[in-house]
Write a structure and sequence with these properties.
alpha/beta
Length: about 625
């Protein structure tokens, strides 16, 4: 069965959940679909009415996208639709007018703003500069026009940040050879190159300001993607090639997946043939390849990349068919090994099926299987995990270790908008969490365990330095998340500055150390009713009474500050069923509107005796 087969049968909307797998089957050696295949599949998917898909599958996560720019961009919506579908997202794409980006971003009454999209792609191309230089032109003329364009773009980005809730995506401008080649002296060409790169650097510095993200096209061009097709540029005003738009769509797909709360957290890697060459059980520690040979250097490069990724908060785990003792000995004492045992949050080495080990590892870490990426050089193991655990992203590598890294990075599984201090310390926190689990296993009852764990919780307004982490939690937390409202950094900042709203950060610690900022409650006061618009908690700290203690504090503060009632909201998703009864469990009653619960503040639950709570709540709630 293919996407074309479903389309011809008129079953594409009815069978939309299958599309993700069908596109995965089309992947070429882990390196992605060709742009032609992508656009062909995307054209069929783009014909779907998103409302029809949602009628058939109402829980399908949908990303609304508005595309605007300077040139002809008709090749982008199909590519983008297919890329989002690869990640299980339904794209609702609206393409703006040719050369309409200034009006569409500059006018708050434009259709772009009326649609209230999750993502706005303002696609920039070199013609926005070269269409306005004089003839003949010099590098200094280009500098003048480019600087003015960036001034304009900065103003449009500021207007967007002050008007819209979504994320604005800009991009750097490629410099096709046909422009510098028109300068006959090499000194002028070098000056033009410097001017162009300096202007693009200014664009890149807009990334992270407000709700703006900037995609750097240079790495895509460096990988051989053509910047433009001269004939299409001249005749159709399509100034970026179809291949570049497809590669750009892939990057946007990674961003959309992150904004939808689907960023991966855990990288589980095989060892033999994946992290080192050879088979440890047969070749012995001295026989495996980790350096000092052509392939050994490739394995060492892959290990360095794994260490780099894990150093940014990705949980690195080993899942290997091996005996545990020799694996630990190699990781602790092999003189040429780059990765060491303490780089891994857990090492699983046994002879059980790997899908069973992954399932058990997810339970130990208290994360979902959909947060896993699994890398293995065995087609058999990859196929088995794909079949048994379809939520796990499987990356098949082969016997050429030089290609391992490209295949791992091809889909940006761990991409995030901003990296926080909490991210950098995540691996050690999860390692501590496994120690807590071992500690739990030594007790006969959960109550005894919690009493000895000595949980301490701090609840109070989020400070400026914590706002990025608050946004990140809202984007990543799926299980204990009552509304799954995805808050971008600018939205969090606006909520924190709203006098009627409190953004409350939950931090915790225990006998094993600090857990950091692990939860968020946003409380909005409207008259004599306090509204809990968001309530979410990291999976690392489930089942310790933290949520009960914080809810108790919020309810008491609302009552003491004159509120008549507190309203809480639950919006069901495929991942948050565990909290469906959270509000009723603590004295809320269902209201008339679906998913709304109300507490009359007459009988407020107490904080658990096993939790020491420090609450500093002022403000409107």
């Amino acid at each position: 069965m293919t996407i074309e087969d479903l389309h011809r049968a008129g079953r594409l909307a009815a069978e939309y959940p299958r599309v993700r797998g069908l596109l995965g089957d089309m992947e070429q050696n882990g390196s992605g679909l060709s742009s032609a295949e992508l656009i062909r599949a995307g054209r069929l998917l783009a014909r779907l009415d998103p409302e029809e898909v949602l009628r058939e599958h109402p829980e399908t996560p949908t990303t609304t996208v508005a595309i605007t720019g300077h040139s002809t961009l008709s090749m982008l919506p199909p590519a983008l639709t297919a890329e989002l579908a690869r990640h299980g997202l339904l794209a609702a794409v609206a393409l703006g007018d040719f050369d309409g980006y200034v009006f569409e971003l500059g006018d708050p009454a434009s259709d772009l703003y009326t649609r209230d999209p999750d993502l706005v792609l303002c696609v920039l191309d070199p013609a926005i500069v070269f269409d306005e230089v004089p003839c003949p032109w010099r590098p200094e003329d280009v500098a003048t026009v480019f600087e003015a364009k960036i001034d304009l773009i900065e103003g449009l980005a500021a207007r967007f940040a002050g008007t819209a809730r979504g994320t604005l995506v800009l991009n750097t401008l490629p410099l096709p050879r046909r422009f510098p080649a028109q300068l006959v002296d090499l000194t002028s060409r070098a000056r033009l190159g410097a001017i162009w790169r300096e202007a693009n650097a200014r664009l890149l510095r807009l990334s992270g300001q407000g709700s703006t993200v900037v995609i750097d096209l240079d790495p895509l061009l460096a990988d051989g993607v053509p910047a433009s097709d001269t004939r299409m540029s001249v005749y159709a005003k399509a100034h970026l090639s179809a291949e570049l738009l497809a590669a750009y769509a892939r990057q946007v797909g990674h961003l959309a997946r992150h904004l939808a709360g689907r960023t991966k957290k855990t990288l589980a890697v095989d060892l033999d043939g994946t992290v080192w060459g050879g088979v440890l059980g047969e070749d012995g520690p001295d026989g495996i390849e980790v350096a000092d040979s052509v392939k050994g250097e490739a394995f060492r490069g892959f290990q360095r990349a794994l260490k780099q990724i894990s150093g940014q908060g990705v949980l690195l785990a080993a899942v290997s068919k091996n005996d545990l003792r020799p694996v630990r000995e190699v990781l602790s004492s092999h003189p040429r090994m780059t990765l060491r045992e303490d780089d891994f949050v857990r090492i699983v080495a046994n002879w059980r099926p790997k899908h069973d080990n992954l399932t058990e590892l997810a339970g130990s870490l208290n994360v979902g299987l959909d947060s896993f990426v699994f890398v293995d050089d065995s087609p058999y193991e990859c196929g088995l995990v794909r079949h048994a655990l379809p939520d796990v992203a499987v990356i098949a590598v082969d016997d050429d270790p030089a290609l391992h890294l490209d295949r791992l990075l091809a889909d940006g599984w761990f991409d995030t908008r901003v990296l926080t201090d909490e991210d950098r310390g995540r691996v050690s926190k999860y390692r501590d969490e496994l120690v807590r689990k071992d500690f739990l296993d030594s007790f006969d009852s959960l109550q005894d365990y919690l009493r000895e764990l000595r949980v301490a919780v701090r609840l109070g307004p989020a400070g400026e330095a914590e706002l990025a982490r608050v946004s990140q939690l809202s984007l990543r937390t799926n299980q204990f998340n009552l509304t799954t409202r995805r808050l971008q950094p600018q939205q969090v900042r606006e909520l924190a500055g709203d006098p009627a709203t409190q953004v409350l950060a939950i931090s915790s610690a225990d006998r094993f150390g600090e857990n950091g900022l692990v939860g968020v409650v946003t409380v909005r006061r409207d008259g004599d009713v306090a509204h809990l618009d968001d309530f979410l908690l990291s999976c690392r700290v489930f089942s310790r009474g933290i949520e009960q203690a914080c809810l108790s504090a919020v309810l008491r503060h609302a009552r003491d500050s004159g509120a008549r009632a507190v309203a809480g909201y639950y919006r069901r998703t495929p991942k948050n069923g565990m909290v469906a009864e959270f509000y009723p469990r603590y004295g809320f009653r269902p209201a008339e509107s679906d998913g709304t619960f109300v507490h009359d503040l007459a009988d407020i639950v107490s904080a658990p005796e096993t939790v020491q709570l420090t609450a500093s709540l002022g403000g409107p709630a």
